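Quick one, T. Sequence first:
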Amino acid sequence: MTMSSDRAVPEPLGDPGDIETELLHHLELRTGKTWSADADVFGSGGLSSLFAMELVVHLERTYGIAVRGADLQMDNFRTARSMAALVGRLRRPAVGGSGA
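Structure tokens:
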């Protein structure tokens, strides 16, 4: 297995549960607080829109996705579960795509 230094995870995690677990760990490291998968990280107060943008960057770098347009809604970043679902959606090939 080749590990690249510019990626936080050498190979993308595939299982939504694995993604949730990684995101919960990331949130705990960044906030100093333990979170459940369905806890609203912004509804609890103290976390800013700047933190939301940090989450976007983390998701893009860690999972090799691009979060754009309609996917930049706060609801996609409220919980570890919603972020894992977003990653899953963005990692799937587009319907009707050529795959090449």
